[in-house]
Write the structure tokens for this entry.
Amino acid sequence: MSTPRLIRPLRPLLQGQVPRAAPRAAATQLRTYASVEQPSAPSAAKASSANAPAAEEAAEESGKKNRVSRLPRALEALYLKPLRREAEYGVPTCDLQLRSYSARNLEFFCDFALRAAYYLNLPAFGPVPLPRLVERWTVPKSTFIFKKSQENFERITLRRLIQIKDGHPDNVQLWLAFLQKHAYYGVGMKANVWEFSKLDVAKEMDKSVDETAKLMEGKWDHLAYVEKKAEPEGKPREQLPTPEALEQFIAAERRRIAGGR
């Protein structure tokens, strides 16, 4: 069984440390044996030896100019910095704070959040390192006379801040839901979201109340009615008594029962 061929690492290939294959030279025209005479062996060897250095130099120069990565664009982007969009007005719409005890998990999820924001057309800024939260506890190892035998514990919480500017509220909610769905282990999230509206908010709220009342009219009509059978058109349904009438009926029944005893 033959051994599998070695796969070159991707990072040295992207950084240019591993030489790439030079592009092939332009295809020459085909020649037939009838039209071109074959040169003798000594003359062909001299010509090839004379043109060898020039051909190597030309291949190296063309290889330097036309170095193109063989990786797909989506795969190559994983080894590059996340793409970002520019903010037009600079109005903050969301502050996402990430917390973790592991710097590796935190940096990985920050990179994931920035890439997701780019594809959702959200201008993201960060991650900005925030002050660490240091907590310490002292616990005695034993009791009674061994009080001096104690043990100290420390927990450091790392934090990063990612800010979204000029983001649409729907896109921001979609971004947060996507991050919550694909949450990484050991990383906590806390988001502060701001939504901006017009100055005449009270008028819009009044309109929404009127629209809600119209929608509820059909449902309120069925309240406090007894559905016995299909009533003919134009005849109202039988209505239940009001709460006041029910209270009077209950009080009268109590007096009647008490007087009969």
